[in-house]
Write a structure and sequence with these properties.
single chain; mainly alpha; globular
């Protein structure tokens, strides 16, 4: 129960942060990506703040012997760069550039009822299931 509550609170905080920073607004994101046109650098400050909080958070958390709600820390062991990682990052970047949305902001923006967000999240979810199905057959 503690894990579910902490995940819910973290998700709400993350969604509020995305909303306040306007990362759920595709036009804001696209204007940030448009470095040769009408560039809006404000999201760079959002990313800088997120990196700062993450840096401090990791240093604080990993100074503990154990996490608060589980038995051990779960840190990814793989550090290699493979084709799947490069292709996945490329598809993510292209999709972000075309739509101005990435998964977190898209899900958060559904609460505002945008059709583009609903289409994006539906397509994203379908693609995840198709990938998992295809990958399980290989």
């Amino acid at each position: 129960m503690k894990i579910s509550v902490s995940c819910l609170l973290a998700g709400i905080l993350f969604g509020c942060g995305l909303t306040v920073s306007q990362m759920i607004n595709p036009a804001k994101v696209i204007s940030f990506l448009d470095i040769s046109g009408n560039w809006d650098p404000s999201l760079a400050f959002v990313m800088g703040a997120a990196l700062t909080v993450t840096f401090i958070g990791y240093r604080t958390v990993f100074n503990r012997k154990l996490p608060l709600f589980v038995d051990k820390f779960q840190v990814p062991a793989r550090k290699d760069i493979d084709t799947k990682l490069i292709l996945g990052a490329s598809v993510f970047g292209i999709g972000w550039g075309i739509t101005g949305l990435c998964p977190g902001p898209a899900i958060a923006s559904i609460s505002f009822g945008g059709n583009n967000s609903i289409i994006f999240v539906t397509t994203m979810t379908t693609t995840i299931f198709v990938y998992r199905y295809i990958n399980s057959k290989v």
